[in-house]
Amino acid sequence: MNGLALQDIRACFEGAIPAVVATCSADGVPNVAYISQVFYADERHVALSFQFFNKTRQNILANPRATALLLHPVTVRFYRLHIRYLRTETEGPLFEGMKAQLAGIASHTGMQDVFRLLGSDVYEVEQVEALEGEPLPEPPPRAGLLGAVRRASERLARCASLDEALNAVLASLNDLLAVRHAMVLMHDAALQRLYTVASSGYATSGVGSEIGIGQGVIGVAARERTPVRIGHVTNAALYTQAMRSSFDAHVPDFEPVLEIPYPGLPQPHSQLAVPIVNGGRLLGVLFVESEVDLRFSYEDEDALVAIAGHLGAAIELLQAATDSLEATASAPPTAAPAAPLPPLPVRHYAANDSIFLGDTYLIKGVAGAILWKLLGDHVRQGRTEFTNRELRLDLALRLPDVADNLEARLLLLQRRLVEQGAGLRIEKTGRGRFRLVVERAVQLVPA
Question: How crowded is residue 302: how many other Cβ atoms within 10 Å of its Cβ?
Fold first, then answer.
């Protein structure tokens, strides 16, 4: 490439204004067409959306060289890319990222029923030209993003628990990046689902709500291990906010239960989902959204990827530190009996380990199994002091051998109990140790 670098004009790839692509047939006949999406792949490559087998597609398969004309959405300056076709991808992170962004563009232009991505045509960019004209002044460079990432990293470095780390990330997004609506979801590898463990800026926390891997913007980001950013959110089914707590109605003898309310915005205009990955392993997803179109830029995406990376490393380090201390922890003492308050019925459905406090749904899955064990030990033995280690050694809980995310499951359970306010709660008493506080007697009811 000469002069300009591709990353210097990333704003041109937001999809706000369609690009123009010029191709030429094998016998020298030119063709010019609008194209809905030119996607920034990396410092040397772009990808064009392949939606129709049209003249442009025919030409590019016969003659791989083309030019693409892009317009900067702020300065209205034209840039011309000289590109060479390399290949077409029909799956993977690049394809899924384009598919999600195209859905957003389609929604914005009222073309939901027309736009369908068949493939991502990958091109090498050989030259970037800035065309002559009278562009508007460049916007001032956005200051402070690197500093914001640094301060977020420093806050994470001071955290001694998963609870603190999640709070630090959400507070950093709000304080340093002016992101008002955000949530963190953790990955349940056994069930291939994501569950909300922390959120900020919503009317309800949504802690415990779930989404499947591959479902919606969040699920696609998790499945493909790549950020997914949409500037114009579509109402199409695949990219709506699909988060919900879904129970398997096909489980025999299982009574359908209420869903945990999804905490998202009712009408978001911009969304960005970033996978939390450490050592190549998916830990969860950091998700932000806004009521403003094009709220999140490439620079925001860069910042969130860095913060999500720090969060992933912090989660693993905190887990390792907890495991180390658990190995030397002394035997847990027994505790005083609960206060004589009216008994609380606690129902347990073994089919999916869902727990109800009275008639109110609380939690399911591993977190539900953990609470059922804790309450059982409390009723039978009067115990209230527990350790993470003994939970890991309890085969009945069916924790995975690797990456059990026990800390995250306990935090999820802790927050759900606080939200319910039914006289049960979990308190940390040290690294790898916690207390079950029972303020009223419980009546365990296997369902």
Answer: 15
Residues 310 and 372 in one domain: no
Residue 176 has pLDDT above 90, yes or no: yes
Residue 1: inside a domain: no
Looking at the structure, tell me whether residues 309 and 360 fall in a common domain: no
**Assigned token pair, 227:** 């950020």
Between CA 291 and CA 332 the distance in angstroms is 49
For the ranges 6-20, 22-36, 324-338, the lowest mean pLDDT is seen at 324-338
DSSP strand pairing (442-446 vs 344-349): parallel
Percent of the chain with pLDDT strictly greater than 90:
49
Contact 277, 225 (CB under 8 A): yes
Cα 241 to the center of its chain, rounded Å: 11
Integer angstrom CA distances of residue 99 from 92, 114, 232, 396: 10, 13, 13, 42
User: Range of 124's domain?
Assistant: 6-130
Phi and psi for 47 in degrees, rounded to 5? -130, 135
Query: Are 295 and 181 contacting, i.e. CB atoms less than 8 angstroms apart?
Result: no
Q: Which two tokens stand for residue 425?
A: 């709660």
Model confidence, pTM: 0.80
Are 178 and 313 contained in the same domain?
yes
Smallest CA-to-CA distance from 36 within 46, 50, 53 is with: 50
> In angstroms, rounded to a whole number, what is the distance separating the alpha carbons of residues 36 and 19?
7
| CATH code at position 207 | 3.30.450.40
DSSP code of residue 116: -
Rounded CA gap, 231 and 292, in Å? 8
| 330 assigned to some structural domain | no
The answer to whether residues 366 and 264 belong to one domain is: no
Average pLDDT over residues 189-204: 91
